[in-house]
Amino acid sequence: MGELALIRRIREAPTGHPWLKVGPGSDCAVVTWPAGHEMAYKIDQVVEGAHFVLDGPEAATPRQIGWKALAKAASDIAAAGCRPVAALVAINLRNGLDDTFALELHAGVKACAERLGFALAGGDITSSERTLTVCVSLIGAAPAGQPAWLRQGARAGDVLLVTGELGGSRGGKHLDFMPRVEEASQLRNLAGAGIRACIDITDGLARDAGHLCEESGVGIEIDEAALPLSAAAVSAAGRDGRSALEHVLGDGEDFELLLAVDPSAAEALMKNWAHATRLTRIGRVLPPAAGRTLKRSDGRSERLPDVGYEHGTSAGSPTQ
Amino acid sequence: MGELALIRRIREAPTGHPWLKVGPGSDCAVVTWPAGHEMAYKIDQVVEGAHFVLDGPEAATPRQIGWKALAKAASDIAAAGCRPVAALVAINLRNGLDDTFALELHAGVKACAERLGFALAGGDITSSERTLTVCVSLIGAAPAGQPAWLRQGARAGDVLLVTGELGGSRGGKHLDFMPRVEEASQLRNLAGAGIRACIDITDGLARDAGHLCEESGVGIEIDEAALPLSAAAVSAAGRDGRSALEHVLGDGEDFELLLAVDPSAAEALMKNWAHATRLTRIGRVLPPAAGRTLKRSDGRSERLPDVGYEHGTSAGSPTQ
Question: What is the CATH number of the domain that holds B113?
Answer without folding.
Answer: 3.30.1330.10
